[in-house]
Amino acid sequence: GAVVSQHPSRVICKSGTSVKIECRSLDFQATTMFWYRQFPKQSLMLMATSNEGSKATYEQGVEKDKFLINHASLTLSTLTVTSAHPEDSSFYICSARDRNRPTSEAFFGQGTRLTVV
Amino acid sequence: AQSVSQHNHHVILSEAASLELGCNYSYGGTVNLFWYVQYPGQHLQLLLKYFSGDPLVKGIKGFEAEFIKSKFSFNLRKPSVQWSDTAEYFCAVTPGRNAGNMLTFGGGTRLMVKP
């Protein structure tokens, strides 16, 4: 149980285009999902908290207009990197919290490696 | 804001050596503590976690960690490392009684085990 799936696992896009990354909880419902970013040889940094049916909460320094988050259902959150630039190349990882196990840890997806050329 | 410090950025060991990776956090209240491992080219895997109870927690693959509240520490240990333990290790913390909140990660420790 507690499987979180991200798609795609790898994506290469041209500078200026937009890329959508999906995060799905496969066997549980998640009212809250988190999006992290990991630059090469660095640690994971929280970008935003995605809440089902409401607006995401962004961390300081993260542009909400550039990183669009939509959490339209209890099993799916999407992160869209708009007008991507090479400096957006990174490893994006989501985690999801089981609404029926509020004291349990959040479960991580396998991550999406974005390369902008 | 809370922070997590991992003192060793790079560690090189020979097989069968003992491992201890340091992790300190800055938060005075109740915390939930985690160690994750990221093998080369792979995603994060949970090694072990501490929520409450016995401060010595055992995880997968022979790893264990000890929560010392007075030192704000949660060091990771393994008595005898293997070449397959080569990976990056992240300590992470979330405050409060809800372990599913967002995590604050340490900077990571890159472990290389020489055969």
Mean pLDDT over the full residue set of chain B: 93
Order of helices and strands of chain B: EEEEEEEEEEEE
SSE arrangement of chain A, N to C: EEEEEEEEEEE
Spatial gap, N to C terminus of chain B: 41 Å
Describe this structure in words.
The complex is a heterodimer of chains A (117) and B (115). Chain A is mainly beta and 117 residues long. Chain A is built from no helices and 11 strands. In chain A, strands 2, 4, 5, 6, 9, 10 and 11 form a 7-stranded mixed sheet that branches. Chain A has a 4-stranded antiparallel sheet with strand order 1-3-8-7, with no helix packed on it. In chain A, a hairpin with a 5-residue loop joins strand 5 and strand 6. Chain B is mainly β. Chain B is 0% helix and 52% strand. Chain B is globular. Chain B starts with a strand and ends with a strand. Classes of the chains: A mainly beta (117), B mainly beta (115). The interface between A and B is medium-sized, with 23 and 23 residues.
Quick tags:
heterodimer, A: 117 residues, mainly beta, 4-stranded antiparallel beta sheet, 0% helix, globular, B: 115 residues, 6-stranded mixed beta sheet, 12 strands
Topology:
The complex is a heterodimer of chains A (117) and B (115).
Chain A: E1 4-7, E2 10-13, E3 19-25, E4 32-38, E5 44-51, E6 57-58, E7 67-73, E8 76-81, E9 90-97, E10 107-108, E11 112-116
Parallel strand pairs in A: 2-11
Antiparallel strand pairs in A: 1-3, 3-8, 4-5, 4-9, 5-6, 7-8, 9-10, 9-11
Chain B: E1 3-5, E2 10-14, E3 19-21, E4 24-26, E5 31-38, E6 44-50, E7 56-58, E8 64-68, E9 73-78, E10 87-95, E11 104-105, E12 109-114
Parallel strand pairs in B: 2-12
Antiparallel strand pairs in B: 1-4, 3-9, 5-6, 5-10, 7-8, 8-9, 10-11, 10-12
Quick description:
The complex is a heterodimer of chains A (117) and B (115). Chain A has 117 residues and is an all-beta fold.
